Amino acid sequence: MHILVITSDYYADIAAQSQLGATQAIKDAGATHDVVTINGAFEIPAAIRFALDTNRYDGYVALGCVVRGETSHYDYVCSESARGINQLALEHKACIGYGILTVENQGQARDRADGTKGNKGADAVAACLQMIALKKQFS
Predict the structure, then answer these.
(1) Measuring CA to CA, which residue among 23, 12, 28, 22 is closest to residue 119?
(2) Dihedrals φ, ψ of 30, to 5°?
(3) Considering all CA atoms of the chain, what is the largest pairwise distance in Å, rounded to the nearest integer?
(4) Are 125 and 3 in contact (CB under 8 A)?
(5) 73 carries an active-site annotation
(6) Residue 117 has pLDDT above 90, yes or no
């Protein structure tokens, strides 16, 4: 299996922790991976869509972090990144693990990326691998 990890590095330290957990989980599963880094979580669905056209990947892992701020920007980014990823999964039968943290503050994000409360990057890989297996089962 070959997985594409797409990481938004808007919060670089949190992204690095999530990505480390994800890439280790991929290695532990005996799979291979490529990593693409982009600026924001909003752009992740488009990046996955571009990669879908290559037919090089069995699955995708979306990693990022969106922290609530003082404006409604948080709501739009969270909603649209999730909607876009779900749309890709449904319309293109893409196996995608969703590891975009949507949190109230950076402390919550760190806890979910550094292992204190698990590593959502590793969790997203587990979801991706499970969807790949399920897709193969029904093919």
Answers:
(1) 22
(2) 80, 20
(3) 46
(4) yes
(5) yes
(6) no
pTM of the model: 0.95
pLDDT for 17 equals 96
**Rounded Cα–Cα distance for residues 64 and 38 (Å):** 9
Active-site residue, from 2, 33, 73, 92: 73
Backbone angles phi, psi at 8, to 5 degrees: -85, 125
Q: Position of tokens 């749309």?
A: 87
**Helical segments of the chain, H only:** 12-28, 44-52, 73-92, 106-113, 120-138
The two structure tokens encoding residue 20: 């480390």
* 52-61 pLDDT per residue, tens: 999 999 999 9
31 CB contacts (<8 Å, ≥6 apart)? 1, 2, 3, 58, 129
